[in-house]
# Entry
Amino acid sequence: MPIEYQIDHARRVVFAKGVGSITSEDLFSYQRDVWSRPEVAGYDELADMTDVRHIVNPTSGQIRKLADLSASMDNPAALSRFAIVAPHGLAFGLGRMYEIYREMNEQSTKQCRVFRTRQGALDWLGLEESPQNADEN
# Structure
């Protein structure tokens, strides 16, 4: 699976990791699969794209649609944070585009930031490295 994730209920955060080649459908599937779960509503999120080697045919329209879908799934009663780790050029640029589209969406209650390092993302979220006892999927 191109996007693996762990849900850490104790710290109310979802840790996702992209691996290998990723398509826009992979991103949409992850968004729908994880964020349609009522038990993660209002959780923070860290998506690490360090191990993504290829992003298949990304378009600004797809990034905007993903940002809009994500915002529509936000818990309107809870502010949360989403950190994207993207050390490589294309992933970083797409992450920044997603961040801007999220900020422009009035439904969004999740603050989004893109980082070149995992440690920077963890620091911004106020977290230490993820524990091994989180639910894996």
Summary: Strands lie at 3-8, 13-22, 44-55, 80-85, 110-115, 135-136. The mean pLDDT is 94.
